[in-house]
Amino acid sequence: MPAARKPAAARPRASTPPATEARARAVRKPATAKDASRKASAGANKPVAMPADEARLRILRAIRAIPAGQVAGYGEVAARAGLPGRARLVARVLAGNDDPKLPWHRVLRSDGRIAMPEGSRGWREQSQRLRAEGVQVERGRVKRAPPEDRLDAALWGPRHA
């Protein structure tokens, strides 16, 4: 008859030698204020959960608020709609748009490029609409000032040389 196995509670546990435990404690770094701040802000830019219809309406409202002659990136539109980090959602909403009055042509990639294949019908139409509003488009790209310069101009007016 084989030897009966001891129940788990009766078996001796393998333990870490005391010297190894002390070494492990010494290697661990204490949490700093910077680490705590990083953990606290880790969720700050997470997308906001909301009903799809509300998100869509917010995005459309943000697009309609872009003045003629100005452009915004997909990410900027998402942030203005209260949905930071949801640039792809903005693109999806625009792709399913059926409102001919929506100024979709004012939304570009973050680097100022038109987000359609170069030379396509949509690319040509977007370029034409932007030029009609006085926006300079060169080879499918709109040169824009850095965001901080645009914010300064919005708050303080144009720079005087």
Give me some keywords for this one.
two-stranded parallel ribbon, 7 helices, 161 residues, mainly alpha, two-stranded antiparallel ribbon, Arc Repressor Mutant, subunit A
Q: Give the CATH class of the domain at 52-156.
A: Mainly Alpha
Structural class: mainly alpha
Provide the residue-averaged pLDDT. Answer: 78
- Give me the strand/helix succession: HHHEHHEHEEH
Count of helical segments?
A: 7
Q: Tell me the distance between the termini.
A: 99 Å
The number of E-state strands comes to 4
Strand order, main sheet: write it out: 1-2
* Biggest sheet character: 2 strands, parallel
Rg from Cα: 28 Å
CATH architectural designation of the domain at 52-156: Orthogonal Bundle
If you had to describe this structure to a student in words, what would you say it looks like?
- With 161 residues, the protein is mainly alpha-helical.
- The protein has a domain of 105 residues: Arc Repressor Mutant, subunit A (Orthogonal Bundle), CATH 1.10.10.10.
- Helices cover 43% and strands 5% of the residues.
- It has seven helices and four strands.
- It has a two-stranded parallel sheet.
- Strand 3 and strand 4 form a beta hairpin.
- The longest helix has 13 residues.
- The model has no long low-confidence stretch (mean pLDDT 78).
Could you give a quick summary of the protein structure above?
The protein has 161 residues and is mostly helical. It has helices at 18-27, 33-41, 52-64, 74-80, 87-95, 121-132, 147-156, and strands spanning 72-73, 107-108, 137-138, 141-142. The protein has a domain at 52-156: Arc Repressor Mutant, subunit A, CATH 1.10.10.
